[in-house]
Amino acid sequence: MVKDLHHLLSEESKGRKPSPLKSAFKYYGQDDLVFLGGGLPMSDYFPWEKIVAYSPAPPFTGAAGIAEKPSETGKSTVTELYKEQVEKFDVPLARSLQYGYTAGQPELLDFLKKHTEIIHHPPYPEWDTIVSIGNTESWDSTLRTFCNPGDTILVEEYTFSSAIETARALSVNFAPVHMDDKGLIPEELEKLLKNWDSSVKPFPKLLYSISTGQNPTGSSLSNERRKQIYDIACKYDFVIIEDEPYYFLQMGEYNKNVEAKDIPTPTHEEFLNSLVKSFLSMDVEGRVVRLDSCSKVLAPGTRLGWIVAQKDLLERYVRLHEVSIQTSSGFTQSLIAGLLGRWGQDGYIDWLIGLRKEYTIKRDFTTRCLEKYMPSLVKYDPPVAGMFFTVIIDAAKHPEFATKYDSDPIKVEDAVYHRALKAGCLMIPGSWFRSPNFEGSSSTFFFRGTYAAVDLKQLDIGLERFGKAIKEEFGVTN
Amino acid sequence: MVKDLHHLLSEESKGRKPSPLKSAFKYYGQDDLVFLGGGLPMSDYFPWEKIVAYSPAPPFTGAAGIAEKPSETGKSTVTELYKEQVEKFDVPLARSLQYGYTAGQPELLDFLKKHTEIIHHPPYPEWDTIVSIGNTESWDSTLRTFCNPGDTILVEEYTFSSAIETARALSVNFAPVHMDDKGLIPEELEKLLKNWDSSVKPFPKLLYSISTGQNPTGSSLSNERRKQIYDIACKYDFVIIEDEPYYFLQMGEYNKNVEAKDIPTPTHEEFLNSLVKSFLSMDVEGRVVRLDSCSKVLAPGTRLGWIVAQKDLLERYVRLHEVSIQTSSGFTQSLIAGLLGRWGQDGYIDWLIGLRKEYTIKRDFTTRCLEKYMPSLVKYDPPVAGMFFTVIIDAAKHPEFATKYDSDPIKVEDAVYHRALKAGCLMIPGSWFRSPNFEGSSSTFFFRGTYAAVDLKQLDIGLERFGKAIKEEFGVTN
Question: In what residue span(s) does the Aminotransferase class I/classII large domain sit (chains A, B) (predicted)?
Fold first, then answer.
């Protein structure tokens, strides 16, 4: 049964009144009404008559994954857009370039909702989808929808620093939850909440989790942990914000003995069954807000994301969007609805399978580089999802840990960072991702690397340099 | 001399720290550095190889203005975009669809800065430009940059209701400034500030003004008033936010005896000289933040605007954008830079001249309809700029004003609204645009109409119906 969660809304969100102008706009387009109510320029004069986009065509399921380019297959998906609607899945330019449709253009929402249904089967009927302009904005709007200054949010103790900055500027309190190499630990979450003293800090309203291919640790929550965390959310009445840009980059366990390119292409059914369960897929109470994004599966500059949640909550987001971003760019909505419409749900799943293949190849290559170049004092655990890998180092193994570095692992981390940078490889120190109020006393530190941004040759060169820098810093040869 | 305005910033904005990740990103793209720092997908796999857009071609300066379509002139401006850069003014898709460039893509900013220079000649050197996703977002970000909850802003006493909603949700106090048919009255502004009691409400930090073709009154501030208001801003130390989406729709005075299509096309110099002076053009202290938008000059769904202000202030906006919207859509930036680059500054000015012509034709037609259909108790003053016209009615002239309507003009306004709606014409009641804390005791009310959204035939039908509704309500025939 879907829960009424209005008691968790921010004062800002509760105070947002419906505009009287909206009551007039419901008459817009009504037969035989001359509507002189809104400052809408006539679409006749939008200076784009036609837009044509050339994209690769499915299937993308060959050995090279999405690396099979149109020039190689000889096929293209051609999206032709006009002011008028031609294909039923297209958003005509006269509409996408006009005001209106804050929640998103119907054709695009239709595709995204069907996609959500196929992937997550949300188990309650009152869910819906709206567009956003990417997960950074979705998160900012989420904070404005739920949190008053001084409110508390639960976060993974290491998390995306930009998400922290978004929240910090809104004067939110952070309650970091301990993690291990498999991500957030449900027992630690429950312990924190059980012992919560609401006279010191308000009880947390929401948990922010990058559950799959976590940034920065690369960890992914198992189905079991997700179920435990969801049950805790129901018991303690908070909302789960699942920020899932990396969800489809689920490469599975690393297998030393198999070359990624030799892994047989799965059927759609096999692919769907292999995906980890989202919080949304177990959300019987409507207390999950899922943030999805085109940034990692199509391109970041699309500035298109979508939010899935119960209708009543999404209505509050739409009221906020009306007076902030309005909606995603019309070019973006027309071009993406056009491409996805032409690919179809099946073609898009082919794309996602091809994308996963691409990342599996890179994850595996990276792991082999780590095996080759890292000294034995470095630990690493090949990620099962996402763009990030970590190398973990125990600062106590440094011969000058107590002397030169005052037994402070962060000082050793900093030394490694600068030594590697000088050697020509940049990886990000893990401590940069610590949540405010972080509590930890381990002597280990880690670096976050990515295999997303560079080709295999660069990965090899970079990791060789990084390994060398560590060896030099620690005075070891192996 | 440009002033340091940091004392006017909000706590949120002052508290925004530079991200440590940014310090790493400065190394991105450096020669011989393998950058494993950022989760940037490779542009090779963005599924858009080529985008081609067909637009009308300059000149647009014929009798029909921008209504001269490519199909009529036989000419098109064709924008071809690729992942790589071909033309120097194009933003290549590999870059626009990637992360980065929060302030906007350099080629687009370059065009917008030159345009700003041509139109406004900002009189201090430290000004700059960043992109936004439209003026609604620019205004939201402006409020977050300057205002703490409880801070005061000055607004025109009738103003865009959505702008009010944006501010209201952030718990801002409103100080409405009295207006007449020429807009905000400088003497009233000064009186308000001179008598301000800061022990009751914080002294205003900013003035929000839609200075040209004001929404909803259609009024435009004269050069003289603007100069007076600017001097008051310097004297009382507040920031002027000029929200100017209608700036280029400056039709000039209505001339009963001339058909708009017969007005000779001005030279670029004549056109530029005919434009009202912006606050930016007189801003010697760097205390104007100008919000510009593509919404009314190209298309609303582009979701592209730009902000002009002193560099130090814009830096605060960029920090906010990094953790909220990131930047405008890459499709938008590539398509608009591509179109404007091909048109050139001159071609774009041709477009603006053509656009003004189009609106002049519609403003004049509307005025003739008002002359024809409105009973004599209705007053109207043809707007010199913008999309909106008003019809002003004295409720005291209603035979049942004191009896049926309790001498309340708003009740008469409401009766006219519903009667016109029933007759098949929707115009917006002026009282819907009253600022919070509005003080007024006149018996007159007004309606806001627009000539933007419909064609001439519809305008004629609608205004005939509206006139008839007023006549019926007031029991007059003329």
Answer: 97-466
